[in-house]
Structures are given as structure tokens and as C-alpha cells.
Specification:
Elements (H helix, E strand, L loop, with lengths): L2 E4 L7 H13 L6 H13 L10 E10 H7 L8 E4 L21 H23 L4 H4 L8 E9 H11 L6 H17 L1 H10 L3 H5 L16
Antiparallel strand pairs: 1-2, 2-4, 3-4
Length: 222
């Protein structure tokens, strides 16, 4: 299991912030905290998605595979940005890696771990023989763990939830995303309220499953 740390730059009162931003454009009193909160709830219920983009989320995501982080990067709506552990400067002689859950027998584990060990030894030998670390790093597998600092807004995360909370999404991504929203809920009470309102798999929003191969949670569209 990886680790996600929600950074203090993350908006602590997302619903109220939406209400304050909307209130400015509606000519309302934004000094009243209760009215701001209620206005924010109204925006959410009315699906006024533009205000979602004012809510900032910054997090450290650590211990997940480079493969799943590549998929995380595909959600680029709302101009998110990120930094990732360097394969040019970080020493990966003994890198940590993810073992898929379908690898269960001792023989399978041996094959998998031996392949990783071979890559690890090769990296060390190449660097000791004079090959630049940035070039030896071409051998690194997508199964190695990595660390990123990620910044995005709620609208981007809502879009992500529609795809990645689906039962048919890649298993590691589902684990990553569920941990992500778990940590957001621990960040403040407003996140506890906001998340179940807006972060749902697409079938829960549509009322049916649009996938060709359904998990059966919702009926498929006829």
C-alpha cells in the first residue's frame, strides 16, 4: 500500500470557498460564513462545475508504481501540475517495486523477483562501470515505485472519479484513488460532506453502465 499526504496548501473549506467565489459574481454578502456554505452547496447540487476549479488539492503520492502514475497523469483537465522523482539523479540500485496480486504461487514470485533483481544488479554494474545514471535508468521497469507531488482542482478529481471508481478500472489505480479520497476526508469536515456528493463512478451518475463489459453494479444501457 502506498502513502498519500495531503499538503496544507489544500483548501480546507472547499464548499465555503465555492460559495464565496460564486457570491462575488452574484453580488452577495461573502462575509457571512453560513450563507457562503449554503451557497456552495447550492452550486454543487445545481452542478455549477466552474466553481469546482477554485478548490485546490496538493498531495504527495508515494509508493505506487510508475505504471499507475502514468495513468494518473492522463487526467489533465483543469490544468493540474506535478513533479516526479527524478530518474536522472535518484539512486535506484535497490528500488522498491509493486508485485501484482495475481502473482501468487512461489514459482511465479520467484520468476518475478528474479527479473527485478537482474535489473537492479545491472543498474548497479552499469553505473560502477562508468555509464551515466540517467542512461542506466532506461532499464527501470514500470513496476518500480515512485513519488510525485501533485496539484489539481476538484473538477479534475470528479472527472477522475467517474472513470477510476469503476469496478473495472485497473486495481492499483482504484487503491490509489480510494486512499486519495480517504485522506481528503481526514483533512476537514467539508471534504467529508463534499466527496460523496460529487465523486462517484459514472454508472452512479448515469443510472446505467455504458461499458461494453459491465461489472453488474448497474444495468447496461439498452
Amino acid at each position: 500500500m502506498g502513502k498519500i499526504t495531503i499538503l496544507p496548501e489544500t483548501t480546507i473549506d472547499p464548499i465555503s470557498l465555492m460559495g464565496r467565489r460564486a457570491g462575488i459574481c452574484w453580488g452577495k454578502d461573502i462575509t457571512d460564513s453560513e450563507k457562503n456554505y449554503k451557497r456552495g452547496l447550492d452550486c454543487i447540487k445545481s452542478n455549477h462545475g466552474r466553481v469546482f476549479e477554485f478548490v485546490n488539492i496538493e498531495a504527495i503520492i508515494k509508493g505506487y508504481s510508475a505504471r499507475v502514475i502514468r495513468e494518473w497523469y492522463t487526467h489533465i483537465g483543469g490544468s493540474p501540475t506535478r513533479l516526479q522523482s527524478s530518474t536522472r539523479y535518484v539512486n535506484y540500485d535497490n528500488f522498491e517495486y509493486i508485485v501484482p496480486k495475481t502473482i501468487q504461487t512461489e514459482e511465479q514470485k520467484t520468476w518475478y523477483n528474479n527479473a527485478i533483481d537482474t535489473i537492479s544488479h545491472a543498474l548497479k554494474n552499469l553505473e560502477e562501470s562508468g555509464v551515466k545514471r540517467e542512461d542506466a535508468a532506461m532499464l527501470l521497469p514500470l513496476g518500480m515505485t515512485t513519488t510525485i507531488v501533485d496539484k489539481r482542482n476538484v473538477r479534475s478529481v470528479i472527472s477522475m472519479a467517474e472513470q477510476r471508481m469503476c469496478s473495472r478500472a485497473y486495481w492499483e489505480y482504484r487503491e490509489l484513488f480510494n486512499e486519495y479520497i480517504k485522506q481528503l476526508k481526514l483533512y476537514s469536515e467539508e471534504w467529508v460532506t463534499l466527496i460523496p456528493m460529487v465523486m462517484k463512478p459514472k454508472c452512479e451518475i448515469l443510472g446505467y453502465c455504458p461499458e461494453k463489459f459491465s461489472c453488474g453494479r448497474k444495468p447496461q444501457k439498452k
